[in-house]
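User: Round two. Same drill as before: sequence, then structure, for each protein.

Assistant: Same drill it is. First protein:
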Amino acid sequence: MSASAFPELYLTRLWSSGYLFGKTLTTDDGRSVEIHNPGRENESNGPDFQDAVLLLDRKPVHGSVELHVQSEDWFTHRHSTDPAYNHCILHVSFYNLPGYESVPAKNGTGIPHLTLSKMLSFQDLIGVLSLQEKLNFKTDIPCGGQLQGVSQTLTKAWLTELGHLAFLEKVNRFAIRLKELTANPVYLKGKRYVWDQLLFEGFFRALGYPSNKERFERLARELPVLDWPDITGETGQPLLSEWFFLAGLEEEPEFGVNPIEKIRKEVLQRGNLFHPSEWKTKSVRAVNQPEERLKSAAELVGRYYQTGFLKPLILTLEAHLNMGSRPEKIFPDLMNLLSVKSSPAYKIGKERKASILFNTWFPVLYLYAREFKRSDLQDLVLSLCDSFPHRQDIAIDKTMRQKFGITDHTTTFHWGLLNLYNNWCSKKKCLDCRIGKEIRKNG
């Protein structure tokens, strides 16, 4: 049997299997399609599936779906003159000839056409149908009931790779921001303040997470490191007053000792960035309220005003590199870098410190090491991600661990499991997943 002449039953099984559910597909005329319900198979005359629910260009549509191996079969079977096909919302074929971007119904309606061969080869189609006997594509984790034959060695290696890819996505987000900063000649890659600005923006975003992260990040960008007023001693009071003013939490800044008048005037001219009502405060713990988070940030900035954020971070890791320290010996010193000494009331919690390290400071440090060819620092950062226990209680993380039998609670595995769920399992990319390939290979 040639690939171009396979039974239409193959497409019927593919459409109803759930493999295409949730995937964002594109019709031949450029419209997005997402399948919410494939409909029920029609056992009499008329379109193959009835009562389907699709999102067409993000708008819900209800109706029938017709399937063909070849697009021209719409005309060969005379559907364009059959009123039974007037309510079709989609024509699906595996192969398409030019000129079939849409097909006409008897009532004059143009029905969009979806070509499956643009996303699946014939071999892929056969692979999906063979996996269909083992996997339940209608569930979030299709292979959940077929993992007994997959080795933990393969699973862990795959999760490690996916975890590292997720970390590199964090790195690349900062790389984009670095490019934005260095487009301004004031910021140079070889200067400390460009890296301090990246560390500061990410640190601020983490302090606002999850309710106010965008506002905190904008505040960090609007009053960058280069514009900070003079800070004497381990206190960030002058800067705190400016933050409060820009955040709309104080009518006029109360400057501390020796403020820079130029900066003071610029801040006053700039005006409030936010109205107090823009800050999300309901259901937010007292310690996480914007005012309290800003006070914690001011204390930490005061600690690193003279050295900057980057230098202590690099010196700490270089010292441990020279000593050949194990990861568990390094973490306490890294956590200590985020400790506020002068005011225990404004201390940053352990989970928030870990979030700042792994979501901000480590990606920025990895980016720095990549820019300046410091592979030793890059390797150390990844090894720390591979070793640090992730303790946040996240439902999907727990579900994935149970399904795949993962007992290691490292940050890399946490990222890997989320990556697997979001980009492979929920998108039914089982043919491309190492675990899906192993299940198929095992027969």
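Second protein:
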Amino acid sequence: MMAKAPGRTRRKLFLGPQIRRRRRELGLTQAEMAAGLDLSPSYVNLLERNQRPVSAEVLVRLANTYDLDIADMASGEDNDLFSSLADAFADPIFQKAGVTREDAHELAAGNPVLAEAVAGLFRAWRQAQNELIDARVAGRLETVDPVEEARAFIQANRNYFPDLDAAGEAVADEIGHEGLSPFDALARRFNHRHGITVRVLPDDVMVGAYRRLNRHSGELLLSERLDLASRNFHLALQLCLIEMSATLDRAANDGRFSGDAGRRLARAALANYAAAATLMPYGRFHAAAKELRYDIEAIARRLGVSFEQTAHRLATLRRPGQEGVPFFFIRIDPAGNVSKRYSGDVFPFARYGGSCPIWNVHDAFRNPRRLLTQIIQLPEGSTYFSIARTVRAEAGGYAKQPAERVVALGCRIEDATDLIYADGIDLNAAEPTPIGITCRLCERPDCAARAHPPLRRRLVVDEYRRLSTPFSFEFN
């Protein structure tokens, strides 16, 4: 038996990641690439998964058909995937486990899909670490977001606090018997019960403040830039902070907060809830909502409150036996920032980021003071009826910039028949507008309004094809 001539053993050439990357760059399917190379689609699939080595003949076909540089493709340690893995494995978190460059090479050659996943995870981890470092340097890092903690507390209680509703109704019943306007009745209660005089002062005297309580002089000062509904609300809010302090403490202390900031924000939200319960006592408000079929403007006129106050209050009707339509509520500014949000166990708002640009809450800014309705549908099929309108915080005078926002309420499509806004609309036949929660969580592939690719999909950059959508991403 003849012995083999001495010499180096040829290493088999696996180029799966490079072939797959080039195919994606060209916008080809595996079947299309197979046809161009005169190979079977299953064989191309095996090549891309590094389950078959690339023969010299196939290497030449790849070079001739798709203008590939054989030397670049054959240089195993120079490919991007190996470089990414080698970079990751050089990090101390991998060094502690004894991972080497050889391990990186074996992973890239033997299981490129897993290798890409590991490299991508490491890049995401490194980016997150850099962002945390930047935040620490800038002095703006908090381990827990107190705003989100407060929102989670309100959500956990379904935006319903019966003790505060009962306390607000009691105050409303007492001051309602005095036969005065809400402002005069509240001012009188401050004076008679607490020895505090209510005064409305020019904005320049208030130095930018809407409300200021001066215990020393016994005065509650309000800015004249506030409209009547806002003055009433600030009076009710300050009254609740004084008279319902123990009730507010008990309610806030029922929540779990990582620090004092979250608890204080939750307590402030509870005080606002109590003020609304005082100006819009539950029984009276619920009766008006039912009678007027949730006509927000009509309810607001009847109770002497604002559109936003009414809309917000409608999202709190959870009293057993006296429930209202389960609404979700959101308030946004022209930049898409969310300043108020409550899902009502109905709508899955994203914790961070804006809302879907196709939702007509954004159209409302182009139609000030006009109430817009829309039937919307999320990717999984949940369908809702929404109402949106602009609201404005009064600037107080000429040349002062008012704060304009949009307030939106929504409910499940099956509850929309209770709303006056759905009259004349065939809720079963109407075509819903497809929206997402937010761009980074929405995986609709055909949205021209998309601002970001979805987090859970791999972005595809194609230099040979431009689609109507801003981003292309993979689904398999």
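The domain at 16-131 is CATH 1.10.260.40 (434 Repressor (Amino-terminal Domain)).

User: Perfect.
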